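[audit] Reproducing an earlier prediction to check determinism. Same input, same settings, fresh worker. If the tokens differ from the archived copy the diff job will pick it up downstream; this log only records the rerun itself.
[audit] input (294 residues):
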Amino acid sequence: NRYQDSVLNQNGVGVASPTITVYLAATTTAATLYSDDGTTALGNPFTGDTSGNFSFYVEDGVYDIQISGGSPSITQYTITAMEIFDYRKKPVYAAHMFQGANAGAKIAAAITALPVTGGTVDARGLEGAQTISANLTLGSATKPVTLLLGAATYTLTTATIILQDGSAIIGMGGMSRDAGKGTTIQRTAGTTTMISATGIEGTHVRGFLLRGLFLNGGDTAGHGIVLDYVDTFKIEDVQLQDGGASNALRLLNEAWDYSVVDSSFNDWGDATNYTVDIVGLDATRQITDGHWYG
């Protein structure tokens, strides 16, 4: 994707031959630049023209652009956190193209880069063994996010995936547990809930979707899915297995108008912890109008 700009002095006059250095956002790592659409390499740093104009091509992402030197010389400054995307060609953001220490960080960066109206983050380019080490929130109440997951095993290390209004997690199939064939989310230690949605009385989290996922609790005493003050949601082709002294699915306080389709909950819980725990708040604020199929 092409980025172009001009360097002007305080009088609005172009600064000849400024030095341009492009970094991956919030790092000192130089970005890979091109002088055309991904074919011819461009040095980094590079020099603008005699009128102060410059341009470069770069992969979708977030960058810091440092500008210095030139004639007459200017004080160095940096344009920070510049989002460079081809919105026409790629309305869906590919998580693997974003910077981050692990899959969770890359997905979070892609979510942040989405417009305020929300969108889709496609993480199917992240395959094999992956890690989510910090809580991952899918947008906000006004920024719905759909997260597409591919043939990967995502290990949660004390992290929870948090659903918001209209959000969705769509994997490659909960019944496909073989490596390379489906989408697995697993917890190997700790007791942190794996997926949650938490509203409040009068303001539910609503309209979300879980589909095509295999959740492995790793025989640990943490809940699989906890939904609290929610409505109008769907769980489809989601398989939960191998949890400890906890609940595979927990519905709390208020939940209504929901569907659980072609999903299973196995080898989770114990004598004092139900595999599926449904706890309404009171006689008028209940878990109701649920539809279970398959």
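[audit] rerun output stored. Observation attached for the diff report: The longest strand covers residues 249-261.
[audit] end
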